[in-house]
Amino acid sequence: MSDVLYRLSNVTQCYGGKTVLDVSDFSISKGAIVGLAGHNGSGKSTMMRILAFLESPASGEIFYDGKRVDVANTDLRREVSLLTQEPYLLKRTVGRNVAYGLELRGADNIESTVRDSLNMVGLDPDLFMSRQWYELSGGEAQRVAFAARLAINPRVLLLDEPTASLDRESTLLIREAAAKVRDKCGTTLVIVSHDQSWLEEVSDVICRFSMGTIKQ
Amino acid sequence: MKKINVLLSTLAILTLLVAPGLVKASDFLMMATTTSTANTGLLDDLAPKFQKETGIELRWTAVGTGKALKMGQNCDVDVLMVHAPAAEQKYVDMGALKDRREVMYNDFVIIGPASDPAGVKGLPVVDALKTIAAQKAAFVSRGDNSGTNKKEISLWKVAGMAVPDKDTWYIQTGQGMLKSITVAEERDGYIMTDRGTYIKYEANKNGSPELKVLVEGDKTLFNQYSVLAVNPEKCKSAKYELATKFSEWMASPKTQKEIANFKLLGKKLFIPNAK
Amino acid sequence: MDFIANGFLHAFVLLFGGDPETYSAIFTTLAVSTVSISISLIIGAPLGFLLGYHNFRGKKFLRTFVDSMLSFPTVVIGLLVYAFLSRRGPLGEMGLLFTIPGIAIGQALLGLPIVIAMMATAVEALDQRLKNTLLTLGAAHSQILRTTLWEARYSLALAAAAAYGRIVSEIGISMMVGGNIKWHTRTITTAIALETGKGEFSMGIALGMVLMIIAFAVNFSMSGIKKRAGQ
Predict the structure, then answer these.
(1) C194 to chain B: which residues are within 8 Å by CB?
(2) Could you tell me which CATH number the domain at A4-215 has?
(3) CA of A126: how far to CAs of A91, A93, A98, B156, B245, in Å?
(4) Most buried residue among B260, C109, C165, C193 by CB atoms closer than 10 A?
(5) Which domain holds residue B187?
């Protein structure tokens, strides 16, 4: 068993005839925290969606855990979870939002997992479990979305600008939880952020994106 | 989830309530009739008596004469009570309807301002219309091709005149009877109406209407109602036996007396004339 | 104009005096409209969902067609349904003319395009982030479909309210297919037409008030849902 989790070879992605991503060779080790930096439109978010198996590249090969990925099936997608800058909360309570991924998997002990996850992001379960989706501030909503991803305990957690438009408190709580999750569960993290100092502090490696290519 | 359960059980209950409507009771008679008989309340008066005496429930739908005859032809009803002798005959000749029996009539009247500017009071219809046209006195017509409108048009023809159309004194409203009377009132004009609507109008004005009855009693103003059965040879589903019972019941001396005694706002409206 | 004031007064007398004819019309109206809105929703919601959810050739044309159906006159729907249900019509054997299920069929046709159009618009307007969120939380395709449907539930309730409003206030179909038969198919609207034709304007207004009260009750119960739909 090698310790490489992802390997991308000659992967490109095009939108409307325009190449937005062109990665000749790129790997992510198991349990690593990889930071992605670069300007807006440099291909970071496209990269994240490809890593999350939400998009298939126009050409090239992706190897995940040593196996070539042809079609992203549900089992594969369930290993990875992506959190974006403005996540979508389902029209239901906080508790049911966090429980959603677990219910899909038919998990046991859903409630205790949900409580643990909410605690991880600094939300008191007793206060927040029964809140409705429209009763949350922006920072709280983002933390609920994060908790929903922590709850399913993915092998890979992809964070795309998770704290870009948040208050200070939420930003710190999310960063704290992100750092904790690798130590506790050995989760591999890929983080996109404009906050250079945070990236340097948290990441093992930082890759810079420019015009769709990586300059390591 | 709770809400869904509530919704589903409500639906289930309603289905149970509605379901009996799907099962057709056999002892009812479906009649198509004109709005005039339904609107006066005559049927509301007669139907319970008919049911009490024969055990047959009378259900009726009030539509225009033309549509009533069509419904008969389409086998949608069992019996008809309408007032368009010429058209009725056509459907009898076609074989769609049979057993035409005259049961009663009501009449039309020509009303106008109490001052009677054209001076038609008491004249026969033909002379009255000629006078109105000659004087170019305002005359309001429904102009909606209804049975009443057709009757009015036929009167101009009986008077031997071209039916007015674009003449400035001839006002076509395209509206119902009561609305048209209001127009006539505002224009100080004459108008032909059925007596039932006039009685209503009179009552609305607390017995002192601006427009008074000026021409009445002329035979050409009579409006003959007949009962016709849907021909069972053309319509298998038609309840011919019940239709015959209804027709006979309408013509019976007892019912004829009921018709004569029927009052709308204290005034008699229909004159029985079954032979 | 005193018939307006009289109408208000009369409405209360009819409602609280327990007038049997009025209650018969109210019951018929509620029975018919409940059946018809149910049919509209059961058929229309999935169709509207599919129309909004999937992209396919001819989708634009289909949307335009459904939108045009919104302005189909009720009298014409009534006429068409009559033509089918008439004894001489293709479905004449079922004996549905002049019955509550008969009217319900016509009214369901009236409500159907409203439900389909509003549902399709709602699903199209659903956040693009929704699908990616469900995918990244590990939903399989059938689970995505189910959750998306559930996410659109408030919009569906709005569509139902809009369709119900049109159904409960229509007259062309009730008159043409139902025949305004006393104690059987007389709805509030056909009763209003009858009373107005009789010159009983205050009675017409009174029945109109009764209809307004029903509409108010429906909208009132929907006001909370309306708020949620946009959040």
Answers:
(1) 38-39, 62
(2) 3.40.50.300
(3) 20, 13, 14, 88, 77
(4) C109
(5) 108-221
